[in-house]
Write a structure and sequence with these properties.
44% of the residues lie in helices and 25% in strands. The protein is of the alpha/beta class and 303 residues long.
């Protein structure tokens, strides 16, 4: 093969694919707009195919351009892994770590982990991004994030280190007949209306599985954007839902109009841990962070 795109060309393709505007893509890459434009055009000539459709309002990736931009992200991440592998030192965690977490877990777990990590690795700077699990996994796979922390990922090519198991409970309106029972059985939930987070959230999958097991109905015309929104809907009697242990400890109060119940015959738990790309050059860093995360999980009472 006589031609290979340069790293810089791949960076230009990724930037233009994300910003869809030559000026903004050039600013991100710290080059002039003509330089980026010329390099994109040169790459298209070398590949023998257009990667972007130009228009008055910017540049739109062609189907081939989208595919190449996606692969370019993985290639650039792999190059970064090579550098990280050469400079890796298990006695510290590097200068910066970009961590993705889900809003149903991270805000209630990370303060404990970050206190431990800062005490042991004071020079480490952390960038935290909250998002849906599906989006975090994609960002980790593409190298936009170094690792994720939360429910076990579905994506291939990930290494997962379990740090704890978080209990899940069902929340019912305080005036619901189930709120007065000491024990709630699977059969008791038959025909109940379940309120769910939107697609891409692991808790939505947990709730759907419980609905199938019990014969409950997941309300199709409502998708919560947060557990707080779900809790408010439950409190006014619009349905039931499930809530993870750390969230419940932090956000529920004795005078809330929601009663939390365990369900007999349902495991009611989710595995949580740290995960990263199998090809990452910072494996020892992540292993060390996972050890700290296990200590934090134990301090919070996660099994």
């Amino acid at each position: 093969m006589s031609f290979r795109p340069s790293r810089r060309q791949l960076e230009y393709v990724v930037a233009l694919g994300e910003h869809r505007h030559f000026g903004r893509a050039a600013a991100r890459c710290h080059v002039s707009q003509p330089t980026l434009s010329v390099q994109i055009a040169l790459l298209e000539k070398q590949l023998g195919a257009p990667l972007f459709d130009r228009g008055a309002h910017g540049a739109t990736p062609t189907p081939l351009g989208r595919e190449i931009a996606q692969r370019a992200k993985s290639i650039l991440a792999a190059l970064d892994d090579i550098v990280a592998l050469a400079s890796q030192d298990s006695d510290h965690l590097g200068a910066l770590m970009r961590i993705g977490t889900v809003p149903s877990f991270g805000p209630y777990f990370l303060p404990s982990l970050l206190r431990l990590a800062h005490r042991k690795y004071p020079a480490l700077k952390l960038y935290i991004r909250e998002d849906r699990p599906i989006d975090i996994e994609r960002a980790v796979a593409e190298g936009a994030l170094d690792c994720g922390i939360g429910p076990k990922p579905h994506a291939d090519g990930m290494t997962f280190r379990l740090v704890g198991v978080e209990r899940l409970q069902i929340g019912v309106p305080a005036e619901h007949e189930l709120a007065l029972r000491d024990n709630v059985r699977l059969a008791d939930l038959s025909g109940e209306k379940f309120l769910s987070l939107g697609a891409g959230h692991r808790l939505a999958e947990n709730l759907a599985a419980l609905a199938r097991l019990t014969g409950a109905e997941v309300v199709s015309d409502f998708e919560g954007t947060s557990l707080d929104a779900i809790r408010q809907m439950v409190s006014v009697g619009l349905g039931c839902s499930i809530f993870p242990e750390l969230y419940a400890r932090s956000e529920f109060r004795a005078d809330d109009d929601v009663a939390l119940k365990s369900v007999e015959g349902w495991s009611g738990a989710r595995e949580v841990g740290l995960y990263w790309r199998e090809s990452s050059g910072r494996v020892r860093h992540f292993e060390k962070l996972a050890e700290e995360a296990q200590i934090a999980a134990a301090s919070l009472g996660l099994a």
